[in-house]
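Lecture notes, continued. The same structure-token format from the folding unit now serves as the input rather than the output. Read the line below as a description of shape only.
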């Protein structure tokens, strides 16, 4: 693996996450996937290890290592199990809007809780008819005295039902389209806030994915995140911060699959020799490793750019999501191919990695939408010359 000029603190984050992944997650990943159980035991261990503090500034109980630090942990956890990793990162996704747009009072209340891992966060934007099309949201927030009344549902919410702090996006003025969206900080247990069924998924099965249901749920004005009508901006700026994390997840999944494929190729004998001696297999491994390193470099660059506050981060963050996720799908597919019938069996982890990789091309903006984001930025940049 190439060196990326990590600081001592960053190396410690990477090494700690790697140790937990190998010692605690790998032995449990098959069972967690099969049983589709939320990994609470591992979440508690991550909290005790201070890994939830990574991305949160020191003044709110964090370590101040930003998105780059989070990506380092995300990559190592995903190398073992992407379902565990997204359960961990989903809390950061739910808390990022609070860090970006919360009042000081909101930050002081919620960020220390997320930093300690005492409570998990979740991000609730998607609906049945509103994924990439934010303006298609149906969940509404009607202004009343001292607050708002929420009605509607949110679909496919990571950490749904397990998290206690939710960033929820609604429509407050339908006539303004996406500019009529407003975000709120919601808490599990609020009257009128309940959960639908837990979804059965192709991959990341240990992660909880549930529907959120709001029925005349009153939310005080103090729980509004940003100004009324800022919801779309809050969501898009959050994605600029979080997409490198999906890239890191993709790199981790792919690295884990490559590790397994190399080990298998060194041990599997055909025609009197190990299959690692066949040039066809060697070339597949070489291409897989090259793509992983290219994706890792892009993710690390994007994360550092985001942490620097650079205005070009939106384009690069989209690139750091689309390229690694497409790469992860190719690499895991090739890992299964190298391992043949064994790779297709649940006894080996690469079939799970292949299933897990697919979602990275879909959530936080499909890769088709990511290409729209990249192209839009390119055209704007050209027009400004």
């Amino acid at each position: 693996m190439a060196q990326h000029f990590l600081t001592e603190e960053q190396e410690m984050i990477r090494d700690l996450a790697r140790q937990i992944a190998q010692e605690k997650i790998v032995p449990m990943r098959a069972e967690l996937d099969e049983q589709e159980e939320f990994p609470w035991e591992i979440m508690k261990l991550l909290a005790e290890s201070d890994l939830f503090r990574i991305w949160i500034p020191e003044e709110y109980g964090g370590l101040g290592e930003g998105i780059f630090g989070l990506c380092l942990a995300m990559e190592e956890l995903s190398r073992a199990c992407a379902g565990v990793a997204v359960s961990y990162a989903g809390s950061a996704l739910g808390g990022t809007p609070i860090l970006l747009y919360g009042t000081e009072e909101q930050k002081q209340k919620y960020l220390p809780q997320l930093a300690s891992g005492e409570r998990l966060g979740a991000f609730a934007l998607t609906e049945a008819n509103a994924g990439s099309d934010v303006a298609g949201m149906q969940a509404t927030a009607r202004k009343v005295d001292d607050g708002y009344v929420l009605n509607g549902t949110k679909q496919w919410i990571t950490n749904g039902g397990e998290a206690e702090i939710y960033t929820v996006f609604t429509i407050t003025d339908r006539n303004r389209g996406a500019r009529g969206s407003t975000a709120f900080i919601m808490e599990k247990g609020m009257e009128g806030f309940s959960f639908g069924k837990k979804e059965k998924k192709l991959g990341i099965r240990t992660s909880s994915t549930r529907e959120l249901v709001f029925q005349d749920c009153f939310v005080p004005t103090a729980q509004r995140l940003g100004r009324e009508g800022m919801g779309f901006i809050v969501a898009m700026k959050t994605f600029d911060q979080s997409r490198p994390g999906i890239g890191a997840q993709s790199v981790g999944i792919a690295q884990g699959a490559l590790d397994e494929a190399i080990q298998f190729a060194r041990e599997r004998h055909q025609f009197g020799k190990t299959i690692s001696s066949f040039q066809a297999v060697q070339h597949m491994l070489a291409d897989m490793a090259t793509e992983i390193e290219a994706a890792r470099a892009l993710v690390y660059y994007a994360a550092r750019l985001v942490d620097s506050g650079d205005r070009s981060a939106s384009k690069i963050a989209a690139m750091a999501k689309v390229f690694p996720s497409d790469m992860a799908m190719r690499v895991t597919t090739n890992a299964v191919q190298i391992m043949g019938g064994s790779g297709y069996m649940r006894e080996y982890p690469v079939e799970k990695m292949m299933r897990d990789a697919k979602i990275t091309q879909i959530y936080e903006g499909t890769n088709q939408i990511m290409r729209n984001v990249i192209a839009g930025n390119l055209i704007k940049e050209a027009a400004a010359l």
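Point for the exam: DSSP finds eleven helices and ten strands in the chain.
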